[in-house]
Design a protein that fits this description.
This protein is α/β, with parallel strands linked by helices. It has eleven helices and twelve strands. It binds adenosine-5'-triphosphate (ATP) and magnesium ion. Adenosine-5'-triphosphate binds next to loops. Belongs to the isocitrate and isopropylmalate dehydrogenases family.
């Protein structure tokens, strides 16, 4: 590499189903981008951790998995989930087993309508929907705290306890307010359910109000999660940055992805904002076994995810160029079936590579 040129080591975890197809498409595009721009280097190493690995070894990750991935600058993750493994086993076995110890407490989901794609909302122009959803990614309803007793009895009980800590709430609120501050509109909506959940959610609101004082230039409001779903559909342009709990943001971001056109285009970043650990980047869609092996998976979510990864690594110009290429391709009508097109995964991938060559 030329002197001063940055080189990044990327861990690839394709996982299951279409995860494998889209991560390989992402790798092709990233390699091509690095070659055409010639301003940075990428080195990839692939890990076979998946449901197939689980069926062979009885677990999703080897003992030293965290030590192995800590050496990388970033992780590009596909999807995990197989028809014959219960979802809670695969999710906790792989995705959460990485996110939580790597302190990736901020999950960030940008949402907008790409050129050449359409929102199912008839009242929504392209510029009306431009959101960033910040999801608390380490505690809340997905803390894993709870238990069962008297199972298989008439009087069986199960608890799923939500955990809200001062530390956890403060750090995500600070991250969300500073995300809102970095965007032109400087607007944040804090999503809550403090009318019904009088402990955790009232505490969440209290921390939001406290952290808000550190960001006097950010205009913020508070909204119950149920009302937020209708606002997203009826008044999309009134929203800019959103912060919500692990559960609420999980649901709202699927809604957001659908409103922006397809789950096949939406990216996610699992960030450790302290940068002590590598962050992990993934398309929000799952392993989609119904279309696995058909070659029709939309790779755009993984391309957008790759752009978010480059941005986080400090390669903002490369990220912009990649998104420009992707949107030129979708606008040109080279789209997979989920976006109403007829193109295959490889055709979209090749078209994006050609477009990168033109733009670089
Ligand atoms: P998981 O259990 O891992 O979440 P899933 O089978 O529920 O996976 P999702 O990925 O959540 O599937 O998506 C739901 C449906 O949306 C899929 O069945 C698939 O038809 C469609 N879909 C998802 N991702 C894509 C994509 N990248 N391209 C095209 N269609 C997709
Ligand atoms: Mg699913």
């Amino acid at each position: 590499a030329a002197p001063g040129r940055q080189s990044y080591n990327i861990a690839l975890i394709p996982g299951d189903g279409i995860g494998i197809e889209v991560i390989h498409a992402g790798q092709v595009v990233l390699q091509h981008l690095a070659r055409c721009l010639d301003t940075f280097d990428l080195k990839f190493e692939e890990f076979e951790w998946s449901s197939a690995y689980y069926k062979k070894h009885g677990r999703y990750l080897p003992d030293d998995a965290l030590d192995q991935v800590r050496k990388f600058n970033a992780i590009l993750f596909g999807a995990v989930g197989a028809p014959d493994v219960p979802d809670h086993i695969s999710l906790w076995g792989l995705r959460l087993a990485l996110c939580q110890p790597l302190q990736q407490y901020a999950n960030v989901r940008p949402t907008r309508i790409l050129r050449g794609t359409t929102s199912p909302l008839s009242n929504c122009a392209r510029g009306d929907l431009d959101w960033v959803i910040v999801r608390e990614n380490s505690e809340g309803e997905y803390a894993g705290h709870g238990g069962t007793s008297h199972i298989n009895q008439e009087w069986s009980v199960a608890t799923e306890v939500s955990i809200f800590t001062q530390h956890g709430c403060e750090r995500i609120m600070r991250f969300a307010f500073s995300t809102a501050q970095s965007r032109p509109r400087k607007k944040l909506t804090v999503v809550t359910k403090s009318n019904a959940q009088r402990n955790g959610m009232v505490f969440w609101d209290h921390v939001a109000a406290k952290v808000a004082k550190e960001f006097p230039d950010v205009e913020w409001d508070k909204m119950l999660v149920d009302a937020m779903t209708t606002r997203m559909v009826l008044k999309p342009s009134s929203i800019d940055t959103i912060v919500a709990t692990n559960l609420h943001a999980d649901i709202l971001s699927d809604l957001a992805a659908a409103l922006a056109g397809s789950i096949g285009i939406a990216p996610t970043s699992n960030l450790d904002p302290t940068r002590k650990n590598p962050s992990m980047f993934e398309p929000i869609h799952g392993s989609a076994f119904d279309i696995t092996g058909l070659g029709v998976a939309n790779p755009v979510a993984t391309f957008w995810t790759s752009a978010e990864m480059l941005r986080w690594l400090g390669q903002a110009e490369a990220a912009e160029l990649l998104m420009l290429a992707v949107e030129n391709v979708t606008e040109g009508g080279i789209k997979t079936q989920d976006l109403g097109g007829k193109s295959k995964t490889v055709e979209v991938t090749e078209a994006v590579c050609k477009e990168i060559e033109k733009l670089a």
